[in-house]
Design a protein that fits this description.
Distance between the termini: 29 Å
CATH superfamily: Spore Coat Polysaccharide Biosynthesis Protein SpsA, Chain A
Shape: globular
Largest sheet: 7 strands, mixed
Number of helices: 7
CATH topology: Spore Coat Polysaccharide Biosynthesis Protein SpsA, Chain A
Number of strands: 11
Mean pLDDT: 94
Helix content: 25-40%
Strand order of the largest sheet: 5-4-1-6-10-7-11
Structural class: alpha/beta
Low-confidence stretches: none
Order of helices and strands: EEEHEHEHEHEEEEHHEH
Strand content: 25-35%
Length: about 230
């Protein structure tokens, strides 16, 4: 079984007060488009939404309005993104997730993920236990020292920018998140926790359209693509 955990409990700090999750695009909130991709995907069987407590009523109404069928639970987000992912994972456990199931962690503000990307990252995770979609770096990468001087130029052929979905086999995800929790380790993404228990996640190349909405200009880009 494939379970999508959509993370929509962020603070939208860098969008200048705009709540990007509910930003209206063509008469629908941004999160509608994100959920719809997973709702329509034939390999996704259940969706868990991790959201802010204050947004529960809005999401109940949204689910009813758009007749989403795969959403099985709404979960309160945590203090940090990793906490929210862990809360979603615990809900998957409560709902009966078992060994071999795949957990897809996806940012609610990545609405342009494609059906093909989801299918490809699922396929890779089935084979390698963990996988993510990522974009190859387009620009030259420089490493600097504390004074702002270039230390070295890093080959961009080896550099990828992580996006979502990121997929981890269920038992592996439990092990990785519990280890991080005990050790009070916070990674910058979900698969980094799998790396800490000895797994090398497989990279699946993502489209440059599959961006995380972070700044106001990103909202305009998404609007132009939908």
């Amino acid at each position: 079984m494939q379970i999508a955990i959509i993370l929509a409990a962020g603070d939208s700090k860098r969008t200048k007060g705009i709540n990007k999750i509910f930003y209206p695009i063509k008469g629908k909130p941004l999160i509608f488009y994100t959920i719809s991709v997973f709702e329509k995907h034939p390999e996704i069987e259940e969706i868990i939404l991790v959201i802010k407590k204050r947004d529960f009523k809005k999401f109940f109404l949204l689910i009813k309005r758009f007749k989403f069928k795969k959403i099985v639970a709404l979960v309160k987000g945590g203090k940090r993104r990793q906490d929210s992912s862990f809360n979603g994972l615990k809900m998957a456990e409560n709902l009966g997730a078992t060994s071999g199931d795949l957990i897809l962690f996806h940012n609610g503000c990545n609405p342009l993920v494609s059906q093909i990307e989801i299918a490809n990252v699922i396929r890779a995770a089935r084979k390698h236990m963990a996988a993510l979609v990522a974009q190859p770096a387009k620009d030259t990468i420089k490493e600097k020292d504390r004074n702002g001087f270039v230390v070295r130029t890093i080959s961009r052929e080896k550099i990828f920018l992580a996006q979502t979905p990121q997929v981890i086999e269920y038992e592996l995800a439990k092990k990785a998140f519990k280890k991080a929790s005990v050790e009070k380790f916070y990674g910058t993404d979900d698969v980094s926790l799998a790396e800490r228990v000895g797994i090398k996640p497989k990279i699946v190349q993502a489209s440059f359209k599959n961006i995380k909405v972070t700044y106001p200009k990103d909202l305009k880009f998404v609007e132009s693509q939908l």
